[in-house]
């Protein structure tokens, strides 16, 4: 926010959104920062999303529109990819992210991969519908933005132009056909007024949001309502080598395909052509000004003003994707069930390791025999523990492999994988602590048992009633006559032991280093 807040001169915002791992970060750098800073936005080289949340350049870049107009100061924004592998985002998160980016941007680049079909168009429509929901919510709180709508540039990467040539189509023809594939929103009744409480657009401003063409907008390309123009630009593959494409951030533009660089330049020109600064309509609080005016006098935002407006949009414009209202409940229940089942499974695995440790320690003790000293016992215990800990370190991998085989993983891959990773890390730590404790306990019991082995008791040669000192040797217990000094201590502390030889023998098994007894 500090970057935006610091702006005191007019500025525009260009943001890139779209599915994960489609090259949003790369195309921003190659299109608008060619040269030294073309890799300003870090790019990933795996299958998981690399960019998280929203990233903004630290200062505006000055760019010249293709029509020769005056230079414009542009802040570039990179966003987290939608529907990423291992992502913990949701459709609601993505919808609100798209909505906020739309409200603040002068132009939006929607980036996706070739081929394109009805599914990606429907996803774009879904983002558009949720953005209409956001605007309707803001209108209810009298904080809706009234401005001239931004531009939408749809870049389709790794495009095979021969598919267009073989169909005798242009990019504009393809865009037209894709728009025609748009299906009616299953929740579109909210926009026409025939809806029940709890439906998608609960705001009374729904009709105003859709500009009196609610029924038509609900069944066509919704983004045409939100953007003043939409242009699809095919972007060819940046390089023939898969390694270069996978690690694009490591390579300068000089080694990339000229066709790719030409297409990226077209994305830049289409985005900058006619771009407007961040603004709002003058007197936008007037009811006579529609939410999507075709024309109005504009007032540019200062950075501080836009930050204040954005804070209100975030506060009042949050919406929930309707597909997650029922699905979220089912998903939550499934996730809770999985977590409980995973925890129980891990506990069983830990019990197996504990039993294995006990077994291996006992086998080691048996090899030592009953006369082994404490050092030998400790060495065998450490050896057994090391072996079992070797099995324990594979539990996270085993847990993930097991999770992938469950159907819930493929319904909630990000959440399930995240839970397995975080929970297993903690559970391995707890199980390891338990193994160490079991090792200490078993080892201590073995040493006590060795010390408490019953020796032979030799009958004393003393006089009945006379205090005798019990002396324990390696294989026997003998009795010696107590010295006068020890007798004094005996009178203060000794315990008289009476009983037959069997009871005496049991007592001797619990004897300390020095003990006195008195025989009847």
TrEMBL record:
This is Guanylate-binding protein 5. It comes from the Eukaryota. GO terms for molecular function: GTP binding; GTPase activity. Residues 3-168 form the Guanylate-binding protein N-terminal domain. Pfam families: GBP. The lineage of its organism: Eukaryota, Haptista, Haptophyta, Prymnesiophyceae, Prymnesiales. SUPFAM superfamilies: P-loop containing nucleoside triphosphate hydrolases (SSF52540). InterPro entries: Guanylate-bd_N, P-loop_NTPase.
